[in-house]
Inverse folding.
């Protein structure tokens, strides 16, 4: 049953006849003022399901949330609808909950709203979980499914009792890499990180009104751009989140875009002489795998020892000369090479690390993500992304030709964008002092976001806090073979949310974690999930598909 703003007066006038099913008992829904939707339960015993401390029989969702309740400038928020989703409703795997949709309104009337969804479970565990977005966002994150990386067999966080919520980050995309919205300052600021707090603050007001209680814990989970967002909440709002799970973050947002555009230029050079076809790249993959696969003691189609693989670069290059032209090899070397900046970006960064082409990462989809469909098409996914960032987030001109971009000419704009968008600040002392916990994960087969950027950031954290002190509140794991979200080699599944919750609530540090492969062809394989720089090494006997057959090795 749906309660929409347009029907509140009708519900108020005919309250006696408006009977809904909520938590399996009769409830009467009515609006007792223009400011609220009230769900009045007829069975006080149902209050136990909500774990509220005060004995109230009313559950309220505010129709409007004033700007004063949101910690960054807005024009307030409004709720557009509230839907009671019954546990026996078709395709509902989340138990009984109330789905609330709303919008946070901008100060600049020409800027888009931040659209959001919050899901309020009947059986609340007193915790809330914010989901990050992905790509350029622009699509509503409904947060009513599992999060990336969780065990598929486990209940969703919502079914486990978490209030879950997400947003569109403050714009609606017309296409995947649509970035024209970024020409509006408030929209770009929202995307950068403002919307994360605005949405969270709004949801806290809804939670307080609905349950008459504040959450005991506030968590965040996200990957890719959502991983960048995860690090942003740690760095920018450190006292407002108790725990964060961050997968393969695009933390170097601006330098990555510039490097990806450089790589696209390299592919197109000399009429596309360096372009590599899908068929050729399969042979490249097979060659690299043949040289590096056994460095962890097992020939299982997974390169786990990236440190040993790095030492095999010369051998790999020699073998690739039988497959590729000099121009094509030069393209790979360009992709693998770091991009140097002639001035410091945010937090002193001067180098964008290259892709792990020669470190053993099986970049099986690289031709789609990087090379594009034809020698001079410039339609690789990362080329499209990088060009859009340069045009609309750095230069701020949608008509700008990114192929003419010169980092020195646009020095001031590059630094300004980096300071806004990048998530590279290693000083997370306030997060540590507030008791926050961070689980950081990156796959070694990521063909979209180089894992070296995450390693570099982790090393900065080690330099800042010391390894032992850092380990008290940050755990960093590398997953062999895991790509960017999905991969033919390995799709990770692990109960990271429970590990985070146990760490935050009970101070039980994550130990002996197992990661399961959920990829179609090899589903069910397991490996130990080891803290960097450790990697799984085969013991020499036992089932090669079982985590128990591997030990922790270090370079």
């Amino acid at each position: 049953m749906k309660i929409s703003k347009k029907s509140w007066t009708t519900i108020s006038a005919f309250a006696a006849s408006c009977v809904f099913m909520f938590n399996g008992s009769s409830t009467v829904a009515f609006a007792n003022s223009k400011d609220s939707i009230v769900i009045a339960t007829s069975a006080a015993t149902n209050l136990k399901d909500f774990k509220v401390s005060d004995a109230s029989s009313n559950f309220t969702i505010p129709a409007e949330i004033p700007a004063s309740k949101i910690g960054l400038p807005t024009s307030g928020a409004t709720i557009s609808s509230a839907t009671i989703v019954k546990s026996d409703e078709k395709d509902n795997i989340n138990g009984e909950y109330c789905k609330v949709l709303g919008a946070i309104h901008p100060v600049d009337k020409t800027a888009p709203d931040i659209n959001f969804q919050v899901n309020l479970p009947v059986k609340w565990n007193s915790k809330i979980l914010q989901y990050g977005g992905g790509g350029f966002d622009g699509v509503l994150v409904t947060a009513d499914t599992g999060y990336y990386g969780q065990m598929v067999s486990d209940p969703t966080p919502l079914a486990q009792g978490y209030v879950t919520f997400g947003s569109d980050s403050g714009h609606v995309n017309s296409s995947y890499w649509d970035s024209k919205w970024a020409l509006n300052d408030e929209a770009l600021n929202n995307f950068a990180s403002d919307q994360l707090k605005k949405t969270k603050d709004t949801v806290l007001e809804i939670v307080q009104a609905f349950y008459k209680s504040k959450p005991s814990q506030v968590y965040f989970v996200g990957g890719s751009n959502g991983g960048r967002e995860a690090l942003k909440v740690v760095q920018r709002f450190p006292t407002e989140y108790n725990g964060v799970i961050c997968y393969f973050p695009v933390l170097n947002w601006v330098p990555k875009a510039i490097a990806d555009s450089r790589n696209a230029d390299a592919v197109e050079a000399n009429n596309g002489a360096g372009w590599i076809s899908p068929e050729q790249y399969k042979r490249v993959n097979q060659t690299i795998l043949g040289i590096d696969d056994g460095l962890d003691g097992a020939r299982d189609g997974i390169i786990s020892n990236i440190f040993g693989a790095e030492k095999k670069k010369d051998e790999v290059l020699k073998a690739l000369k039988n497959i590729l032209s000099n121009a094509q090899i030069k393209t790979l070397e360009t992709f693998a090479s770091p991009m140097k900046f002639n001035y410091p970006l945010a937090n002193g960064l001067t180098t964008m690390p290259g892709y792990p082409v020669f470190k053993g990462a099986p970049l099986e989809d690289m031709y789609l993500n990087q090379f594009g469909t034809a020698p001079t098409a410039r339609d690789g996914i990362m080329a499209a992304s990088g060009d859009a960032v340069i045009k609309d987030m750095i230069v701020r001109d949608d008509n700008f030709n990114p192929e003419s971009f010169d980092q020195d000419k646009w020095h001031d704009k590059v630094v300004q964008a980096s300071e806004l968008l990048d998530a590279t600040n290693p000083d997370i002392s306030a997060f540590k002092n507030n008791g926050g916990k961070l689980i950081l994960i990156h796959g070694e087969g990521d063909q979209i976001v180089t894992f070296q950027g995450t390693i570099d950031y982790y090393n900065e954290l080690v330099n800042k806090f010391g390894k032992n002190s850092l380990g008290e509140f940050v755990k960093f794991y590398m997953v062999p073979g895991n790509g960017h979200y999905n991969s033919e080699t390995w799709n990770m599944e692990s109960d990271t949310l429970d590990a985070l919750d146990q760490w935050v609530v009970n101070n039980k540090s994550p130990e002996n974690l197992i990661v399961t492969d959920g990829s179609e062809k090899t589903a069910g394989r397991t490996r130990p999930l080891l803290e960097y720089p450790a990697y799984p090494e085969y013991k020499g006997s036992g089932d090669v598909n079982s985590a128990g057959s591997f030990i922790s090795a270090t370079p």
About this structure: The chain is about 30% helix and 20% strand. The chain has three domains: 2-215, 255-416, 429-553. Residues 185-211 form the longest helix (27 residues).
